[in-house]
Write a structure and sequence with these properties.
The chain is an alpha/beta fold. The chain has five domains: about 200 residues, P-loop containing nucleotide triphosphate hydrolases (Rossmann fold, 3-Layer(aba) Sandwich); about 190 residues, Rossmann fold, CATH 3.40.50.300; about 100 residues, Arc Repressor Mutant, subunit A (Orthogonal Bundle); about 90 residues, HRDC domain (DNA polymerase, domain 1); about 100 residues, Arc Repressor Mutant, subunit A. The protein contains 35 helices and 18 strands. The strands form four sheets. A seven-stranded parallel sheet has the order 3-4-2-5-6-1-7, with helices on both faces. A six-stranded parallel sheet has the order 8-13-12-9-11-10, sandwiched between helices. Helix 2 runs parallel beside helix 3 and helix 33 crosses helix 35. The longest helix has 21 residues. The N and C termini lie far apart (about 75 Å). About 5% of the residues have low confidence.
Length: about 750
């Protein structure tokens, strides 16, 4: 199809609002419009969508865009309809989210020739009624987006994608353009072969994203570290990826509790909720979206400033794809990956029960992730090398390993040992097997090949398996070693490696990176949470001037309300205020002994005083802070709260949970101490005289210096038993002090 350059550039400006093309975009578009097949490798943010959207608008007929991401379809269609500006161009999508009436509308526009771009899920394309529909439509070309899904070596393998070629032949062959942001040489070959477009012109852009900063952090105190980072970047948009739907929900809740606007996004949510949460993120009602690694979000948001992997991704490709959502506008993007070997073990456990071939592929992909996380090489160099691209500079200046380099050593002898081992064996083996031979491992595979009888067996026992895996991986980066594409994962020696063996030279290598692999303990109950928070505070002394001012304020407020000072805020709460300088009610709730009710009832004067003090004295508030955990949802506590709401007797509640009444009272006191109000009036009226209740209540209100039960027993003498005092104390705390 012959369309002049002026028309192409005018459409680019009038429809999409751009003055110039980026990279290979114009070449791809011209090639496609001239009837050629194309394979486009372009990093996230490089402008892949334009490569098929612009020619679809200019060419006769309808372009069929096959995409696995329902969310992305809606996003792209909304975007195109927003561009239309009276051109009459119509974009539609056809997938399982549509009802019958909506499907009929799509069919009518297609048959009338109004639709220029139709996004379709591969599953929808296989339906006979849709195949019959498309046979009667003039098709301009087929675009296979996220083409890596074709390959079982790709990070989002979709079996339906392997049927695309047959479906295209059935509907009617037209030019095919396959597009992906991530594809190793193995995946590229698989895509071209499966689509039957081996003669396609390959347009390969650099995978380098110079505006992204890559960092791997040890997974220690991860919740605290993550929240601290997000709070240090207020107002910035970000994505947090988690391994499971359950963890997505937990982290979204954790962020909200700590004052960060966040929502979950995963395949288990209903379509309406997913759409609402996506729209809230795009419209900046919220700052952070928390999503599963396995679920492709398809969110086209240019100003995502950080991508955090709470759990390790399943492959380098998925990691590259997900981090690629940051900084699509070319501005800053921070990519943080929290790593512990515990995550790797979880993923390996998920593989159990799957076909052996699939397990083997996943294990190899995961091995690459481990090598990336544990390496001290330039992370940009590692990523680009994985996709078959060399990054020449020694220091990228935008990853943790380059900005904060680790100690190095001359690794020529270690590399020579690896090369000698590989060359001494008639067959090739994988990284882990080679490392096991060098360390002297005695596993079944080594014994079955009789590799424990090799002269070099155990010659590297002074180092760990992890060390030798790192050496081998660095050999791949230096092109001394190679990984065979057709037999994925087997390590061979290159000509350059043989030259190095014959004439060794200094190899600067980094010392083994050590990860403890530990995770932050789960804060399942209030005592653990308080202990963790206390540890975060470190027991340091607070600001003595501020503490004195806070005590004066407490005394004034107590006098005005005719209450004891401790009822307003206890000394531990004031100590925390003098350390943490809370200047909002939300921050105040992070101090010891300050629940929701107390913060709302008494907090305004205190945060106002602290805010003024901080401003006048130019105080730099501490970066450290308390991470608030979600209230405990233990079965006991939920049952107790619900049973008290139903006015059940304490004896019956205790019996139902296998507790004695004293243990139940301890549970109730713990619930009240977190700021939850319980109404025990029904039980107190039935079991205590009015006079007794009044006298104990007045003691706590007018005389008590604290809420101590022991002090109350001593002050009130032997007239009242401990149970009576505890019951009235709970009543007082719920009505007055919380």
């Amino acid at each position: 199809m012959s369309i002049d350059s002026a028309t192409i550039h005018r459409t680019l400006k009038e429809f999409f609002g751009y003055d110039t093309f980026k990279g290979d975009q114009e070449s791809v578009i011209r090639h496609l419009m001239n009837g050629g097949d194309a394979f486009v490798l372009m990093p996230t943010g490089g402008g892949k969508s334009l490569c098929y959207q612009l020619p679809a608008i200019l060419m006769e007929g309808t372009a069929i865009v096959i995409s696995p991401l329902i969310a992305l379809m809606k996003n792209q269609v909304d975007l195109l309809r927003g561009f239309e500006a009276g051109t009459g161009t119509i974009a539609h999508f056809l997938n399982s989210s549509l009802n019958r009436q909506q499907i009929d509308e799509v069919r009518a526009d297609l048959q009338a020739g109004k639709t220029k771009i139709l996004y379709v899920a591969p599953e929808s394309l296989t339906k006979e009624e849709n195949i019959a529909l498309l046979r009667g439509v003039k098709i301009s070309f087929y675009a296979v987006d996220e083409a890596h899904c074709i390959s079982e070596w790709g990070h989002d393998f979709r079996p339906e994608y392997r049927r695309i070629r047959a479906l295209v032949e059935d509907i009617g062959r037209r030019p095919i353009i396959a597009l992906t942001a991530t594809a190793t040489p193995k995946v590229q070959s698989d895509i071209l072969k499966n689509l039957g477009i081996q003669d396609a012109v390959v347009f390969k852009s650099s995978f380098n994203r110079p505006n992204l900063y890559y960092e791997v952090r040890d997974k220690q105190d991860v919740d605290k570290d993550m929240i601290k980072y997000i709070k240090q970047n207020p107002g910035k948009s970000g994505i947090v990826y988690c391994l499971s739907r359950k963890k997505v929900e937990e982290i979204a809740q954790l962020l909200c509790i700590n004052g960060i606007k966040a929502r979950p996004y995963h395949a288990g949510l209903d379509a309406k909720t997913r759409a609402e949460n996506q729209d809230a993120f795009l419209s900046e009602e919220i700052n952070v979206i928390v999503a599963t690694i396995a679920f492709g979000m398809g969110i086209d948001k240019p100003d995502v400033r950080f991508v955090i992997h709470y759990d390790i991704p399943k492959s380098i490709e998925s990691y590259y794809q997900e981090t690629g959502r940051a900084g699509r506008d070319g501005k800053e993007g921070h990519c943080i990956d929290y790593y512990s070997y515990k995550d790797i073990q979880k993923l390996e456990k998920f593989m159990q029960g799957k076909p052996v071939s699939e397990q083997e592929i996943n294990r190899q992909l995961l091995g690459e992730v481990v090598a990336y996380a544990e390496s001290n090489q330039c992370r940009r160099k590692l990523l680009l090398n994985y996709f078959g691209e060399d990054y020449l500079p020694d220091n990228c200046g935008a990853c943790d390993n380059c900005v904060h380099p680790k100690p190095t050593f001359d690794g020529r002898e270690q590399m020579r040992l690896v090369i000698r081992l590989i060359e001494s064996m008639p067959e090739h083996f994988k990284i882990e097997h080679l490392a096991g031979i060098l360390t002297g491992a005695s596993n079944a595979m080594i014994k079955s090949y009789k590799h424990d009888a090799l002269p070099l067996y155990g010659k590297g026992a002074d180092h760990s398996d992890k060390f030798w895996c790192t050496v081998i991986h660095q050999g791949l980066i230096m092109h001394l070693l190679e990984k065979e594409i057709e037999s994925y994962g087997l390590i061979g020696v290159t000509d350059k490696g043989r030259e190095f063996l014959a004439n060794p030279y200094e190899l600067t290598m980094v010392e083994d990176r050590v990860f403890t692999g530990g995770d932050t303990p789960d804060e399942d109950d209030d005592e653990e949470a308080q202990a963790a928070n206390a540890a975060m505070r470190g027991g340091g002394a607070g600001d003595p001037v501020l503490l004195s001012m806070l005590k004066d304020l407490r005394r004034d407020v107590a006098s005005k309300l005719k209450l004891q000072p401790w009822i307003i805020f206890g000394d531990p709460a004031l100590d925390d205020m003098s350390i943490l300088y809370p200047i909002t009610i939300e921050e105040l709730k992070g101090c010891q002994g300050v629940g929701e009710g107390k913060a709302r009832k008494f907090g305004a004067d205190f945060v106002n005083l602290i805010r003024k003090y901080v401003e006048e004295n130019e105080i730099s508030r501490p970066d450290d802070f308390i991470v608030k955990s979600a209230p405990s949802k233990s079965a006991n506590k939920i049952f107790i709260i619900q049973s008290i709401d139903k006015c059940m007797s304490l004896e019956d509640i205790a019996s139902a949970r296998g507790l004695d009444v004293d243990e139940l009272m301890t549970e109730i006191e713990a619930i009240v101490s977190t700021g939850t109000s319980l109404n025990l009036d029904y039980y107190i009226k039935e079991n205590l005289d009015e006079d007794i209740v009044e006298e104990i209540y007045d003691y706590f209100k007018e005389e008590a210096a604290s809420d101590s039960v022991a002090d109350a027993i001593a002050a009130l003498g032997g007239d009242y038993d401990e149970m009576e005092i505890r019951l009235v104390r709970i009543k007082f705390l719920c009505e007055i002090a919380s």
